[in-house]
Design goal:
single chain; 6-stranded antiparallel beta sheet; alpha+beta; 6-stranded parallel beta sheet; 16 helices
Length: about 900
């Protein structure tokens, strides 16, 4: 067989693209051969051309609905790379199957394939007038053999590649008509009928901006003899041995050969080398390929990969080399792996059934957030955006992100960075809030996307859990779906209980799988039972005060949240409402939750006064969002290890919206984020109500109104030893009663300290509070709601320089916050919110103002700081009392 020393060549087709509108929706202007970007999408191309305004801005969203019902053509002209020989005429054309039919050709000639990493979504692809096939799935890649279709390198014309993308909403409606309509709750469109990310059709935090495009790279790959194809199956596992742990590496290489040639006939060999984190080779093996190959390597006592905060993240390197019979290198791949064990402990105990993540034999309290696509237009999500989002999680002391099932699978950039940082990943398969057909039309795509992504992702140690679906069993049981399904009509259960776990077992097998979230391990059809497995807690946001988080002790809370607006500076950048108001047109359009504005107002009404203007409304709802989640997480964490984790909804946003996010779409950290940083810190001090549990048959039900009790939560790997000091004092600062005791909290444990009755019973609830302090941490307990507190107008002394602002309070100031409005200082580190007792101070650290070069003259001074840059509860009460 002819061989060539050069490995495959890869040409990225990222230029020479145009966009044309082919009909369907009525475009308000002509779109023919418009310059286009790949990766990209129709919306961003039209924005680049100045044809549409930013749909995120003002009320522009509704101006682009025609795009979702339109067909578009992406066309690329490209020259055949010079190294490709021009042998003979094109032979038999490709068939019309999705992946294309094999081509026939000489074994020694160079072969070429077109690879599409991601197409959104349903498209016909042709090259030089010949159909390559039809694609129907946003969640996978596609490759086509184009060896005999490329024009000769000396040809006067260039190759013409056409990708005709059909109107996604039209296609979804047609597919629903063929397979039968099924209920869905994410939006008004049948997103569940095609394999496109569900939230692209709109969600209760996202706009209805249905995209079409080529959102990931397109490459032309050319090779001689044989090549390795992607994804490559690389799985690392860890098992106990007779003397020490044994790390096992399993590699299943996939090889692309000339048609009619088998791996055994070709005489190919594979060589695998494992290199330790210090760069030293620790194992190697080689063998001839047969075509059904699985190669394993074992090393004794490998270094363990740990989640962040639990140990280091040593990564081993796997080098895979494909060799010709004469030893010539044909292709190679490099992957990083980590050795660790992951278990999901579902153990029956006195309280029900646990839901506890165990890594390397250590039980962990998971502290995290749900992650949605970081931008409506996913092709714009850069590695920098992902880095920023991961930093948002790590800086808030999170150890896990749940990649939610209404979006996309985590990409390689996110997974690699999480491997390095120790940030664990819980990955949903892309099914959310809907019943899904199990007809072959959809099931074949589901199987293909699942296999590809499990293979691609299985090498990453950060990935700790596969989850089959988001709220789909919940919807079937509790949302009335059964009333809208015909007898015997499938709704996706077969995917979650059979297809997906089979794929995970075949191509991974090293980490747990759950069929759905929420998940009851003892009864799949009872997903709301807090005593068993994981729950989603949405009663609070939808219809109950946030103190009702204390109604139960869930074994794990995988989703819960409370809304707040985007940061004030972000609203100023995207909205033109004049005057700005909670119900002005732009604000209303950027609130997608059902009755969202009413729920925001009702959410703070039991606690805070009605705001007198928009600035106070923004502060009130932002503060109330932080307080609601503080109530939930502090309650859940206080019950560790009975409750084994909280994953809030949500970390990030995809556009400037009022939502449950802790960080808005431009990366500004909301008050909620700063609360999360304290709530998820290794050392956490809280005061919680404790009382008698109610009912033998409901061990999770507890009294919300109980005796104030101190809980010191230590999730660190070392003991937390300090003296607890608690005092009941008047707002003027005078201590009325005090108490102290030594606390010795072992690693990863909670210590509960009951207080003497003289501290827990107030004489005047409107003028007293409890203050607990332990090792630099402080917890407060208020005996009455803010509406009843006798807080005086806040008198503050403010001193600032370019890098900091120090505020001193003359009397008790509750929840003093630096607002961060348009043109204001932004926090660089430390607190953004503080409650100050009389005479106390807090320093807000801010980013330095960029200075120009010396030869450009003096820089601008830091923005001045005044009282208007701050708000506190005292201000809200004072304003309400003056109305």
């Amino acid at each position: 067989m002819h061989t060539c020393a050069a490995p495959p060549t890869v040409t990225v087709l990222d230029s020479g693209w145009t966009l044309s509108h082919l009909g369907g929706g009525r475009a308000p202007f002509a779109i023919q051969e418009l310059a286009a970007r790949v990766p990209g999408c129709v919306h961003t191309d039209l924005m680049d051309a100045g044809l549409i305004a930013d749909p995120f801005h003002g009320t522009n969203e509704h101006l682009t609905h025609w795009i979702g019902v339109s067909d578009f053509r992406y066309r690329c002209h490209f020259a055949t790379p010079a190294q490709i020989p021009t042998e003979g005429d094109a032979q038999a054309h490709l068939g019309s199957g999705e992946m294309g039919d094999p081509q026939h050709g000489g074994h020694g000639r160079e072969r070429c394939a077109l690879r599409f990493e991601g197409i959104d979504t349903i498209a016909e692809i042709t090259l030089n007038g010949t159909s390559l096939g039809r694609v129907r799935d946003m969640h996978r890649s596609y490759e086509f053999d184009v060896t005999d279709l490329l024009l000769p390198t000396d040809h006067a014309e260039q190759n013409v590649l056409d990708v005709v993308i059909h109107a996604p909403l039209t296609e979804a409606r047609a597919a629903a008509g063929r397979m039968g309509e099924r209920p869905q709750d994410g939006n008004a469109h049948p997103f569940n009928a095609i394999r496109k990310m569900a939230c692209n059709f709109g969600w209760d935090w996202g706009p209805d901006l249905i995209t079409s495009g080529i959102f990931r790279p397109v490459t032309l790959i050319c090779w001689h003899t044989a090549r390795l194809t992607d994804p490559l199956s690389v799985v690392a596992s860890l098992t106990p041995g007779p003397a020490a742990r044994v790390g096992t590496l399993r590699v299943r290489p996939f090889v692309d050969l000339a048609p009619a040639v088998t791996a055994a006939d070709a005489g190919l060999a594979i060589e695998i080398t494992l290199t330790d984190p210090d760069g030293q080779p620790v194992a190697t093996t080689g063998r001839r390929l047969t075509g059904t190959d699985e190669i394993t390597l074992e090393i004794p006592d490998p270094q363990l990969w740990w989640p962040v905060g639990e140990g280091g993240q040593p990564l081993y390197w796997v080098d895979i080399r494909l060799l010709a019979p004469d030893g010539t290198l044909l292709d190679s791949r490099r992957r990083s792996i980590g050795f660790r064990t992951v278990e999901l402990i579902n153990r029956v105990d006195d309280h029900g059934t646990s839901f506890t993540a165990r890594v390397n034999g250590r039980d962990l309290f998971l502290r995290g957030a749900n992650w949605i696509p970081d931008d409506v237009f996913v092709s714009r999500i850069s590695p920098g955006d992902i880095e920023r989002g991961i930093a948002d999680a790590l800086d808030a002391h999170m150890n896990v992100l749940r990649i939610w099932g209404g979006g996309l699978f985590a990409d390689d950039t996110m997974l690699a960075r999480c491997d390095e940082a120790g940030l664990m990943i819980w990955q949903d398969f892309p099914f959310a809030c809907a019943a899904y057909a199990e007809d072959a039309e959809l099931a074949d795509q589901v199987a293909a996307e699942a296999i590809e992504n499990v293979i691609r992702m299985a090498c990453h140690p950060a990935l700790i859990l596969w989850n089959g679906s988001n709220e789909n069993v919940e919807g079937y049981v509790h949302w009335g779906w059964q009333d809208h399904l015909s007898p015997g009509q499938t709704w996706g259960l077969g995917y979650y209980t059979t297809l997906l776990p089979d794929v995970v077992a075949t191509w991974d097998g090293t980490r747990p799988y759950t069929p759905t979230s929420p998940f009851n391990p003892t009864d799949l059809m009872d997903p709301r039972n807090p005593d068993h497995g994981s729950v989603h807690s949405w009663v609070v946001w939808n219809r109950a005060d946030y103190t009702h988080y204390r109604d139960s002790v869930p074994r794990f809370c995988a989703e819960f949240g409370f809304q707040g607006p985007a940061e004030r500076a972000t609203l100023a950048e995207y909205l033109d409402d004049d005057p700005m108001a909670a119900d002005s047109p732009g604000m209303i359009l950027h609130e997608k939750a059902a009755d969202g504005l009413r729920k925001l107002d009702e959410g703070f009404a039991p606690h805070l006064p009605a705001p007198t203007d928009f600035e106070d409304w923004h502060f009130t709802t932002s503060l109330n969002q932080a307080r609601a989640i503080e109530t939930g997480i502090s309650w859940f964490r206080s019950w560790w290890p009975r409750c084994a984790g909280s994953i809030i909804w949500q970390l990030n946003d995809c556009w400037p919206v009022s939502s449950w996010a802790a960080v808005d779409c431009v990366g500004r950290r909301k008050l909620l984020w700063f609360a999360l940083r304290d709530l998820y810190d290794d050392h956490f001090l809280t005061i919680q109500p404790r009382g008698e549990e109610v009912g033998e048959q409901s061990a999770a039900r507890v009294n919300r109104a109980g005796v104030p009790t101190v809980i010191a939560s230590n999730l660190a790997g070392a003991p937390w030893q300090a003296t607890l000091r608690v005092r009941r004092c008047r707002f003027e600062g005078q201590p009325l009663e005090s108490f102290q005791t030594p606390v010795d909290a072992d690693p990863r444990t909670n210590v509960t300290i009951e207080l003497p009755a003289r501290l827990t019973r107030s004489v005047d609830p409107t003028r007293e509070l409890l203050v607990a302090e332990l090792g630099g941490r402080r917890a407060l307990w208020w005996f009455a709601e803010d509406l009843e507190l006798a807080l005086e107008p806040a008198a503050l002394v403010i001193v600032s320089d370019d890098l900091s602002i120090t505020v001193t309070a003359h009397q008790l100031v509750k929840d003093l916050c630096l607002l961060g409005g348009p043109g204001a200082r932004q926090i660089s580190q430390g607190p953004r919110r503080a409650t100050l007792l009389p005479g106390e101070s807090v320093t807000f650290h801010t980013y330095p103002v960029p200075r120009p070069r010396i030869d450009e003259g003096l820089g601008q001074p830091a923005p001045s700081v005044s009282r208007k840059d701050f708000r506190c509860v005292n201000d809200l009460l004072d304003a309400a009392r003056r109305v």
